[in-house]
Amino acid sequence: MKISALERAILVIDSFGKSAETSGLLQGISAEVKIFLTFLFTVTVLSFGRYDGVALVPFFMMLAFLTAASRISFMRIFLRIGAVSPFVIFIGILNPLFDHTNVIFFGIETTGGWASFFSIILKFILTVWCSLLLISTTGFQVIVKGLKTFKIPQILANQFYFLFRYIRLILKEALTLKRAREARLSGERKFDVRLFANLVGTLAVRSIKRADVIYNAMLARGFDGDIPDVHKSRRAGVADFLFLFLSIFCCIFFRFVSIY
Amino acid sequence: MADALISPEVGGVLWAVSAATAVYAARQIAKDKDSKIIPLMGVIGAFIFAAQMINFSIPLTGSSGHIGGGLLLAILIGPHAAFLTMFSVLGVQALFFADGGLLALGCNVFNMGVITCYFVYPFIYKPLVERMPKMRFVITVFAAVLGLQLGAFGVVTQTLLSGISALPFSKFVILMQPIHLAIGLVEGIATALILEFVYKAAPGYFKANAPTQGSAIPKLVLSFAVMAVVCGGLISYFASSHPDGLEWAIGKTIGSEELVAGDSKIIATASDLQSKSAFLPDYSFSEGSAFGEKFGLFGTGFAGLVGGGIVLLLAGGTGFFLLRGRRSE
Lengths: 260, 329
Known about the structure:
By secondary structure, chain A is mainly α. Chain A has eleven helices and two strands, in the order ααααααββααααα.
């Protein structure tokens, strides 16, 4: 039986939570360093020209090394990359229709349209892979704690904590409502818009009532508008700085030094 | 929107705008001192996340749709809380589901959060519903369509400014806008129906929760003015050295960056009409004009500032007109 988006979302959230608890190279690096490097890596990859291809190869090697050293399953990473954003392919595939410049891409003479299309796909794989490594090797709460070092507003950090706390619960509730409705529709999986609105409306009302209960429970425990920070993250050590400088050096080196 | 479709410059500018809006929203919520909003935002964010994953069938097409949620949130919990909630939902999607990516998060928050919560809701939805409460259903659909149209236009502009797509601007717009018109209509109807259901099932609940806007609007308008001027100037500066997608594609095809006007009378008339009405042709001062010779280098940046100003005046004028109409009633 095909699983629904709701079921897949629950599975994804569960699986990433587990892999962050395993031991490996990236799991031992502080969240702040990993967040900074994810941005640096993304910006470096995206700064390449529209026809660049070979120059991106060292970045694939970097990620492959980090994935192996962190004991993350390559299969799972690639299944997730394959599952996202047909929009990128949709936008990219139109390039060959409009750009007929002659360029050399990976040693093959082709049109600029095809070169830029494949360049978009390569950059897409690299940036998604890098984000997936971040979440796979760091718990969500630890990432939020790390983001606070970069001065995100306290209320937004709290919002991330609350959202993460309740996301699985509400997804389960939505799944229960959806299954019950599907059972009454004799196996038909798609709803018309009115049925959909009633189902989602019910979910909204239940969520609001749940928020009320949570608020009262918080008041009973002395909540006065501030949420104490209970998520401990360790301070960055020598290993973190070493990893940081080595990664920055690799990004700069592979960006500006041609390998072929 | 995804990382692979944007350049670091565009991603960076949009991140700065979205982050500044998040700081503004956080301050507004802190000012309201309504601590109940904190758990509500968390749970309702989880609700939007789940609701986005439930599809419904679109009649006569065989395809299916789902809601975006920005407008629904703004109506239910107010624009500031809605914006931060959208930020967190998009953030979780970018992190867990690699949907979009971290650099593109700024663009996504702008296209789906800033536009809906700080333009469509306060300037279109709210004034219209206050003036014509009985037309709430139609206004919701209209606001959803407008929000999605502006969001889609944002995607087109950001992709083309990044120099990623070779698709000409006009073709990109023609491709994106009608698709999103259809999606917007369906999403609007779904949003309006959900609202009707919630108002019936939990009457009076949300009015108490929605934070008031009060004097925040003039400050917001001012901050948008600053953002528009900065973005207009900065982006135009970057754009000046890279021709736009249309000109670039044509340039590559026929070896010249401007289309050579053919014999067609329509093209000649349209081009004549355009050159008369455009006071900043090709986003710079007219060639040969005294200004053009004097300020050639700054022309493009200046054109960006003026263009941004005109758009801002038009949008602000519409909002002012609507607000004045409401006050006079």
